[in-house]
Sequence to fold (197 residues):
Amino acid sequence: MGLSVVPKGEIATIVTSLEMKAPPRAAPLPPSPFRLVRWREPSADKYRALFRRIGTPWLWFSRLAMDDRELRTIIHDPAVEIFAVTDRQGIEIGILELDLRTQATCELSFFGLVPELAGKGHGRWLMAQALGLAWRKGVERVWVHTCTLDHPGALGFYRRSGFMPFAQSVETFADPRIAGLLPRDAAPHVPLFDPAS
Fold:
């Protein structure tokens, strides 16, 4: 057993992919003060603003690194469905993104709430909504992935929701804080090794 050195300026994470091959048993929808609002062809700026609010603590950066045209190609695709979670005042506090571009498959490509809501039970409501929307005629598999940069409870939450792990990999990438995609003080639990220092 050996260790692999991660170069300065990069981050390593373990990615776990999970799947569900049959819809869960029907159950009452957990109560929630929130609602889902479908975003049809949101602007790149509007999308990125919500993406940042939810994902900055977990170093979500993939959509921030895309130019507007590349991002719009995905978020305006009719087979990609984006929903904002809104509170009673209409403030956007979460995201659910379903990717149905692969036949018979639905990926929960982005699923999350603002950090202030973590651990308060609202994820169960959002997951019930996600699975209700994902499992539709023609879908035979729903899948999601998480990584060790996500909320520490994410993997357990997906498993309790009925997803089974099917693959694991190690991903390394340039630290988005060094590139300026996210603030340098984002995700303080993840050490920043700046090659310039």
